[in-house]
Specification:
Layout lengths: L4 E4 L21 H5 L16 E7 L13 E6 L2 E6 L5 H7 L9 E3 L5 H4 L2 H8 L8 E6 L8 H9 L11 H4 L7 E6 L13 H4 L2 E4 L2 E4 L10
Parallel strand pairs: 1-2, 4-5, 5-6, 6-7
Antiparallel strand pairs: 2-3, 3-4, 8-9
């Protein structure tokens, strides 16, 4: 990685309720008190230079009050550039953090469990109103037993013919004021959805985002940056 990475996260029971945005929580915690949520310690401000990783959600498949499903937002030079997973509840956290589809270089999906992709359609649905026209890469695992690959997963969501959310089908071909998605399947360990190392030079699986180069490992396991 070409620059130091800072991790931004609110402590306590609420993981990154508010983060790198102008709309910070009042110092007295009144907003979280009104919501009935214990006030968490606030993260440091998002840096204007370099890279910072913001935890939007750290929850798992079992519902926990105040904790969104797994999701991270990578900031580079003060701009949200990479969304990693979009678990249930992260749509709200994404908005609170100041995230926008228009500024993202890519969305990475580590694996296709509900607690990692449950709010992806909501993030896309909202982004359809932002006027972005540049293609957006969505990178995730290939098919595995009982799981489609990322390309097929997005088709099942967005196909204009029979997708669950066909009204957002413009994402698949860049019509209807939607930016075209560029989905990519990354091979996992023998199609089992386990983590697999990336032969970056051979398969050209490197994402270059400003000062950061990412060689991702996808699956139910570690993601290496």
């Amino acid at each position: 990685m070409g620059t130091a990475l800072r991790v931004l996260m609110a402590g306590g029971a609420v993981a990154a309720l508010f983060g790198c945005s102008d709309a910070a929580v009042p110092a007295d915690g009144s907003l979280t008190q009104e919501m009935g949520i214990p006030r968490a310690e606030q993260p440091v401000a998002c840096p204007d230079e370099g890279a910072a990783l913001q935890v939007l959600g750290s929850g798992g498949p079992i519902a926990k009050a105040g904790r969104a499903g797994t999701s991270y937002l990578l900031w580079i030079d003060g701009e949200p550039r990479l969304l990693i997973d979009a678990g249930s509840g992260s749509f709200l956290r994404f908005a609170e953090a100041g995230g926008k589809i228009e500024s993202l270089d890519a969305i990475l999906l580590t694996h296709l469990h509900a607690d990692h992709v449950g709010d992806l359609i909501d993030v896309l649905n909202s982004g359809g109103f932002e006027g972005r026209s540049d293609p957006l890469a969505i990178v995730g695992p290939d098919a595995a037993p009982r799981f489609p690959g990322t390309i097929e997963f997005l088709a099942r969501l967005l196909s204009k013919e029979n997708g669950a959310f066909a009204y957002n089908g413009g994402y698949l071909d860049g019509t209807e004021n939607k930016p075209p998605l560029e989905p990519r399947d990354i091979a996992t360990s023998e199609g089992t959805a386990g983590p697999a190392g990336l032969d970056v030079p051979r398969f050209e699986r490197r994402l270059v985002l400003g000062p950061v180069e990412i060689a991702a490992i996808v699956g139910k396991g570690p993601v290496l940056l």
